[in-house]
Amino acid sequence: MFSLKSITDSIQVWLSANLGATGALIAQCVIVILLAIALFAVLGLVLVLMERKVAARMQVRLGPNRVGPWGSMQTAADTLKLIVKEGLTPDGADKFLFNLAPYIVMIVAMLLLAPIAYANNFQIWDINIGVLYVTAVSSLGVIGILMAGWASNNNYSLLGAMRSGAQIVSYELSAGLAILTIVVLTGSLQISEIVQSQADGWWIFKGHIPAIIAFIIFIIAVTAETNRAPFDLAEAESELTAGFHTEYSGMKFALFFLAEYINIFIVCAIGATLFLGGWMPLHIGNWQAFNHIMDYIPSSVWFFGKVFFLIFLIMWFRWTFPRLRVDQLLNLEWKYLLPISLFNLLLVTMIAILGWHF
Amino acid sequence: MSLVEIIFWFLSGLALISAIMVLLSKNPVHSVLWLIAVFFAISGHYILLNAQFLAIVNLIVYAGAIMVLFLFVIMLMNQNAETEPRSKSTWIKLAGAIAGGCLLIVVVAAVRDSENLIQNIGGKAYAKTAVTTHGEIGLIENLGRVLFTQYVVPFEISSVLFLSAMVGAVVIGKKD
To answer: What confidence score (pLDDT) does residue B103 get?
Structure first.
């Protein structure tokens, strides 16, 4: 059967035969970097178009439909426009930090691609604390946002950055606790082991109601962490012009925009890995025939299918719920989500110790 | 020089330069950002020692949470060189330098004489070199086991301390 494992293995063998150990390592690093950048570009193009199409469908419009068939080249045209635009730096801005901030946000998003398992045996870095790595690195993105807001020397930007900081620091807690519930059930922080533990069923089915509660809390928390509507206070257009990236233009704005979509992809990939089995096909108990048919669908298709389903869910939120006020936002986290997820974690620990999960 | 050594010297240089820049920056926001760079370099050192869990926790707690709160407060208060109180007395600077130097001497002496850090090679005492890239103690399994067996009482007491700090913050923050 077709598998990415055989391709990576044959590349590995060919490189080490022709270049020696060090040369092969360097060549592999270059290949991985190129693939990561390619994934970035493709995801950016696809997700922006998807967002606009989904938004259009929700509002009974057609969405972009002029450039290319069904408007599929619209994002490429937009990117071209942004590249040729002038990148302004405001006069009173802290020039160095202002120019550095978009790259920090971008690099953080790029670092997060490393531990994700894209398909069976297809992973950049299977670190033994994979899930913690993701929580740690994703919490660094806020530094770039605060930097951008402060360095712009603009009150709207600063307010947006402050809101974003408060929001990300608070919602990280519930996202982390939701992740922990699955770690408790699996007993491992390694992404590959978490995926393997779901070979006989995804955790959202195996973990009973606590897993479903954790999944819902996770989705709410990551929507807030990525500053998406209904939690888009950081860039609330009607109040703050564009929030922390008000002063950015041209390619630097495009980097913020791209990083937002990559972050959505990453959090959805983590959600899919933890709760929906990553690249594991859907297996139901003893239905041998059904399980075999499901095995024929390649693992990468399963992974990206689940991720795009979650992305669609988050886009759906945007056009369903009105924006929260900042006090409602913080109340929701500290008075509801955090106590619920703490209690939920206790419940899951009990289930895991007593072995009640399947 | 092996790869590990090159990385070690790079990270050490980065940590020292960033730490000096924390002190020398005129703008407090720049100081905090340099401090974040210091934490990154130290996390890199932890990874060299194969203590991945410590490295990640260092990033989550310091770079991710505490430094973000620092940035928050400093940016909101909009402090800069003009608003900073200037101590004019050179005596205070001198006293500070002497006190800091004394602390440095004590730390260096303690590290030098620590028996855990000295090994005997051919009757002579040498400083032990750290175990790089294959130490086991910083991994999450070992650290968790040690924390919850050998050091369980200090661990629980410190968690009570954190709880009391949180309660204190809520009491102070509550308007009556």
So the answer is: 94
**Cβ separation A165–B71 shorter than 8 A:** yes
ipTM above 0.90, yes or no: no
Confidence of residue B92 (pLDDT cuts 50, 70, 90): confident
C-alpha span between A266 and A269 (Å, rounded)? 5
In the predicted model, is pLDDT for residue A83 greater than 80? Answer: yes
Could you give the CA distance from residue A241 to residue A160 in angstroms, rounded to a whole number?
9
B13: pLDDT confidence band, cut at 50, 70 and 90? very high
Q: Do A169 and B68 touch (CB under 8 A)?
A: yes
DSSP-derived 3-state class of residue B132: coil
Residues of B in contact with A189 (CB under 8 A): 140
3-state secondary structure A18-33: HHHHHHHHHHHHHHHH
Retrieve residue B63's tokens. Answer: 């770079």
What pTM did the predictor assign? Answer: 0.84
What's the pLDDT tens digit per position in A283-306?
A: 776 777 777 777 777 778 888 888
pLDDT at B102: 94
CA distances from B84 to A168, A316, B27 (A): 30, 49, 10
The CB density around residue A336, as the number of other CB atoms within 10 Å, is 13
Can you tell me the distance from the alpha carbon of A108 to that of A263, in angstroms, rounded to the nearest whole number?
A: 9
**Nearest-angstrom CA–CA distance, B13 and B20:** 11
pLDDT over threshold 60, residue A20 = yes
pLDDT for the residue A71? 78
Closest partner residue to A129 (CB to CB) among B27, B53, B72 is B53
> How far B139 CA lies from chain A's nearest CA (Å)?
9
**Pairwise CB contact (< 8 Å): B52 & A166:** no
Question: At CA A246, angle to CA A241 and CA A250, rounded to 5?
Answer: 130
pLDDT reading at B121 higher than 80: no
In angstroms, what separates the C-alpha of A143 from chain B's closest C-alpha?
7
Q: CB distance B52–A127 less than 8 Å? A: yes
CA–CA dist A47, A64 (Å, integer): 13
Do B139 and A128 lie within an 8 Å CB cutoff? yes
Residue B174 has, within 13 A of its CA and on its CB side, a CA count of 7
Name the architecture of domain B1-86: Up-down Bundle (1.20)
Rounded mean pLDDT of chain B? Answer: 81
Q: Is B33 on the interface with A (CB under 8 A)?
A: yes
Cα–Cα distance list, A239 to A145, A246, A342 (Å): 18, 12, 34
Strands (E), chain A: 117-119, 122-123
Q: Please tell me if residue A133 touches chain B, with a CB cutoff of 8 Å.
A: yes
- A256 touches A102 (CB < 8 A): yes
Residue among A306, A332, A315 at smallest CA distance from A264 = A315
Q: Is any Cβ of chain A less than 8 angstroms from the Cβ of B53? A: yes
**Amino acid B126: pLDDT:** 66
Domain boundaries, chain B: 1-86, 93-132, 139-176
